[in-house]
Design goal:
alpha/beta, 8-stranded mixed beta sheet, binds pyridoxal-5'-phosphate
Length: 408
């Protein structure tokens, strides 16, 4: 039978990471692949108690449909949590979504027509790239420096795109411990990015799953907290701060931007699960999200330190090999010498029972073949050391094979 597919759907690609995750579920493989939160950070006892109470005593409400905008109790709890972070909003400016991936989908549905230009990092979050592709958005990649996007390049690309008569919509940015690079944007750059957006009349889509997972250094105010015009749309997921299985995020948008998002969400899923919304709300009100975050930060800090130590110890010292040293989040980003293709190298890595995410899929310009993302969230420090030892062996063998090939 021959099937018809929409032109939109036909252009979409499966996520290389999600495909890889299937493979790395094999217990003998040490996987630095998936960007999953550490399960030991889940407050399972507390959530079990809350869920049981909700199901026993509020079943008529939590097992029912909810309003599209989301539970008022959860949005109120989020408003109070955001206030000390310098973000003032009203309850109507918050929308609960079925985690941030849905927020990205709603963002594309609401604001972009095919061919519209969005600026994003080089590299950037693969799930956002997938959403942009599905909606036929024209993505313009901006290289990341140690302190975030190269804003000179951003300005030059804006000028070029305007000169080419394109419609520019916004800038997608993950300022803290970016996925996949682990890079954090400096305060100066956050201010300048907002100035550029103001001058060029662009929206800023600020995606912040990792900002609260800072285990070293001082936190930097969000771009949203500096926005006085309602130009920034903020996406805050609970996936890494509480549990990814709850599938919950909150999106902050002002005025008619919010109205468009609500209209996009209604035909998507009517509403996000009332049960998980109430679980998160009760957790925030009864236990406190900040208190929980204080407990889980050191877990990631220890794992990150173990990975950085193992990289120092095991990695070949060849020129061209480098990696980032994040102060929070889940990811280290490693660069191999030019000519090494991390996608090709993955075959040998799987053979040696270690896995990572090849970087190329996170580059909208088709480059980045010599990069990889290493997530330290799942393994223990001992396993991390063994995994990096195996990875270093893979890299050493690949470099030697390449040298031997060049000598032939
Ligand atoms: C930058 C970024 N945005 C969004 C998401 C989506 O997360 P979720 O749908 O679980 O909220 C992720 C997940 O890894 C991410 O890294």
């Amino acid at each position: 039978m021959k099937h018809h597919f929409s032109s939109r759907g036909a252009g979409a690609k499966r996520s290389a990471i999600r495909e890889l995750l299937k493979l790395t579920q094999r217990p003998d493989i040490i996987s630095f692949g998936g960007g999953l939160p550490a399960p030991e950070t889940f407050p399972n006892e507390e959530l079990a108690e809350i869920a049981s109470d909700l199901l026993r005593n509020q079943s008529a409400s939590v097992l029912q449909y909810g309003v599209t905008e989301g539970s008022r109790t959860l949005r109120q709890a989020m408003l109070e949590w955001l206030k000390p972070q310098g973000i003032e909003a009203t309850i109507d400016e918050l929308l609960v979504t079925t985690a941030s991936q849905q927020a990205l989908d709603l963002m594309c549905k609401s604001f972009f027509d095919p061919g519209d230009v969005v600026f994003c990092g080089l590299p950037t979050y693969l799930g956002a790239v997938q959403a942009f592709r599905l909606f036929q958005v024209d993505t313009a990649g901006i290289p990341l420096l140690d302190d975030g996007m190269d804003l000179d390049v951003l300005e030059a690309q804006i000028a070029d795109a305007r000169a080419a008569g394109k419609t520019l919509r916004g800038i997608y940015v993950i300022p803290d411990f970016q996925n996949p690079s682990g890079i954090t944007m400096s305060l100066e750059k956050r201010k300048r990015l907002l100035d550029i957006a103001r001058r060029e009349d662009l929206l800023v889509f600020e995606d912040d799953p990792y900002g609260k997972l800072r285990f070293a250094g001082d936190s930097i105010p969000s771009i949203c907290s500096m926005d006085t015009e309602g130009r920034v749309i903020l996406m805050l997921t609970f996936s890494k701060t509480l549990s990814s299985g709850l599938r919950l995020a909150v999106m902050l948008a002002r005025g008619d931007l919010m109205d468009a998002l609500v209209r996009a969400k209604q035909p998507t899923d009517l509403c996000t699960s009332k049960l998980t919304q109430m679980m998160a709300a009760r957790f925030m009100n009864e236990y406190g999200l900040d208190k929980h975050l204080e407990e889980i930060r050191p877990v990631y800090g220890a794992k990150c330190a173990a990975m950085l130590e193992a990289l120092e110890k095991h990695m070949p010292k060849d020129e061209g090999i480098s990696w980032t040293r994040p102060q929070g989040g889940l990811f280290v980003w490693a660069r191999m010498p030019e000519g090494i293709d991390t996608q090709e190298m993955l075959e040998l890595a799987i053979e040696k029972k270690v896995a990572y995410v090849p970087g190329a899929a996170a580059f909208v310009d088709g480059k980045g073949h010599n990069t990889m993302r290493l997530s330290y969230s799942l393994a223990t420090p001992e396993i991390i050391d063994e995994g990096i030892r195996r990875l270093a062996e893979v890299i050493r063998e690949t470099l030697e094979a390449k040298k031997a090939g060049a000598d032939d």
